[in-house]
């Protein structure tokens, strides 16, 4: 290549001549074997403290975590303890969800290490403390799809993501299971972590299982990972997931599930190639048990099942009743093993799953979704976040995402929980707006949203027990009466956002008896 040729080329673009060994960004050719490269030229650092220093984390920044390890998670507490010891202050925790195991965060909030939380849910002692006004800044609650879009659109700017992985190779290819069968823990899909890995300023993988390169197929690619920390344990395997999610034996749940399956069958959406999502427990999970019988009897196959995947869905897939599984979160070991072994069981991220601004999001292609509720009101608004006592004890999850995207959204709930009615004039906390909810199935009848008269006509024609939501509410109140108003204070402890980031409700602190 001579000078004249380069002058000619530069008239049409920015070219530069090749010079052997000049570009420092290109790793130099190495005579080392793969084994030697994995042990010398890799992203593994000696400690979590070193990874934090290298990441450039500073006071006031935002850190993120995923919740795929559920109540068995060790990562959040491990990282926050380390950051507290290193003297960090004023951090915002942007976790996909927080649960009972994260109670130690209370002390880090009191000590000023954590001053902000953005999450899908809270449970246990941490949730109770926050409900009673622990934090100065309200917690921001987002749905799974809302969180994904907020990260993508930089409403949440993650400075450092601390992501636990069940396996990782020395260069950062990470996953929620191990093909080498050497892993201590498995969580299956890393669907929520994948968004963080794509958009965080720095990504630190924390694992107890370094495997040989390449760790494929991977949930998180090496190109997104900056540092790897190996620890003794990332979680408690027994609390991360069980062998299989079991069907409920509660007769009320089974009655509701059977009724919901009948609603699906007669809804007009039960056709060959339909798509569905069901919840992971109680009546919502049991619906698949009854739906299977209809599918076999009428030779109907589902095109795909979506969301948090359970062993029940896996069994339908392996029977050939569901063609594909789109897995953003694996709920049990059966699901995790299926993700590893079944070709058409795919790991998807939360953006693909439920981003409200992505027309092709999987929730928008759903025919049917079956969801649970803590409360529902006469306008079909649903609460899955706060209990009848006003305490935060749940998670938004994908509830509003799927209800807003599916052609038919079905809520399953008992009419009564103990001495408390499920249906009321207004729910304590609106999570899913009523205009996106189509049918309520209880153990004492079915109510159809007046916005969907065609559904009501089909169910009545099938002689299902269809009534109004006002009548169901009246039935409940004849048994248990009307609940007393809760002792809410003026302080706002939680901001509930809808899929698009708009504020749909707020959560006020619950006052102690001596404060009322």
Task: List its traits.
single chain, 516 residues, alpha/beta, ten-stranded mixed beta sheet
Question: How is this structure best described in words?
Answer:
The chain has 516 residues and is an alpha/beta fold. The chain is built from 17 helices and 26 strands. The strands form five sheets. The protein has a ten-stranded mixed β-sheet, with helices on both faces. The chain has a nine-stranded mixed β-sheet with strand order 14-13-12-11-15-18-22-23-24. The protein has a three-stranded mixed β-sheet with strand order 17-16-21. A hairpin with a 2-residue loop joins strand 22 (439-442) and strand 23 (445-448). Helix 7 packs parallel to helix 8 and helix 10 (251-266) packs across helix 11 (282-297). The chain is globular and about 85 Å long. The N and C termini lie far apart (85 Å). The model has no long low-confidence stretch (mean pLDDT 94).
């Amino acid at each position: 290549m001579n000078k004249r040729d380069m002058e000619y080329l530069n008239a049409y673009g920015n070219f530069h001549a090749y010079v052997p060994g000049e570009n420092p960004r290109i790793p130099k050719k190495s005579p080392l074997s793969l084994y030697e490269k994995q042990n010398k030229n890799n992203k593994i650092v000696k400690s979590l403290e070193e990874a934090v220093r290298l990441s450039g984390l500073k006071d006031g920044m935002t850190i993120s975590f995923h919740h795929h390890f559920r109540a068995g998670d060790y990562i959040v507490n491990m990282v926050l303890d380390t950051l507290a010891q290193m003297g960090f202050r004023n951090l915002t925790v942007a976790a996909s969800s927080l649960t009972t195991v994260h109670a130690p965060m209370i002390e880090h909030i009191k000590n000023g290490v954590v001053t902000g939380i953005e999450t899908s849910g809270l449970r246990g002692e941490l949730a109770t403390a926050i409900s009673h006004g622990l934090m100065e800044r309200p917690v921001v609650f987002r749905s799974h799809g809302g969180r994904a879009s907020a990260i993508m659109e930089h409403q949440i700017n993650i400075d450092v993501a601390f992501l636990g992985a069940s396996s990782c190779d020395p260069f950062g290819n990470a996953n929620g299971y191990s093909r080498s069968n050497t892993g201590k823990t498995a969580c299956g899909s890393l669907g929520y972590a994948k968004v963080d890995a794509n958009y965080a300023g720095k990504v630190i993988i924390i694992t107890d299982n370094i495997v040989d390169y390449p760790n494929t197929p991977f949930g998180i690619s090496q190109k997104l990972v900056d540092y790897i920390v190996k620890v003794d344990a990332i979680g408690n395997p027994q609390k991360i997931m069980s062998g299989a999610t079991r069907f409920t034996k509660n007769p009320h749940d089974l009655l509701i599930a059977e009724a919901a399956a009948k609603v699906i069958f007669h809804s007009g959406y039960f056709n060959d190639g339909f798509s569905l999502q069901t919840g992971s427990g109680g009546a919502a999970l049991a619906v698949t048990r009854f739906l299977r019988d209809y599918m076999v009897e009428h030779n109907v196959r589902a095109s795909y099942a979506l969301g948090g995947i359970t062993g029940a869905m896996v069994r339908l897939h392996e029977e050939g009743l569901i063609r594909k599984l789109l897995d953003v979160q694996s709920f049990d070991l059966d699901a995790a093993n299926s993700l590893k072994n079944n070709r058409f069981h795919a790991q998807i991220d939360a953006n693909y799953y439920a981003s409200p601004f992505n027309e092709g999001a999987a929730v928008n292609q759903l025919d049917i979704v079956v969801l649970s509720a803590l409360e529902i009101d006469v306008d079909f608004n649903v609460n899955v976040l706060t209990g009848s006592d006003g305490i935060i004890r749940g998670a938004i999850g994908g509830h509003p995402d799927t209800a807003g995207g599916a052609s038919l959204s079905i809520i399953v709930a008992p009419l009564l929980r103990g001495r408390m009615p499920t249906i009321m004039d207004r729910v304590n906390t609106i999570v899913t707006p009523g205009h996106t909810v189509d049918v309520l199935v209880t153990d004492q009848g079915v109510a159809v949203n007046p916005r969907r008269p065609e559904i009501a006509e089909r169910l009545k024609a099938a002689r299902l027990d269809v009534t109004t939501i006002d009548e169901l509410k009246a039935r409940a109140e004849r048994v248990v009466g009307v609940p007393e108003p809760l002792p809410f204070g003026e302080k706002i402890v939680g901001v509930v956002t809808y899929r698009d980031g708009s504020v749909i409700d707020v959560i006020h602190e619950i006052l102690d008896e001596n404060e009322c």
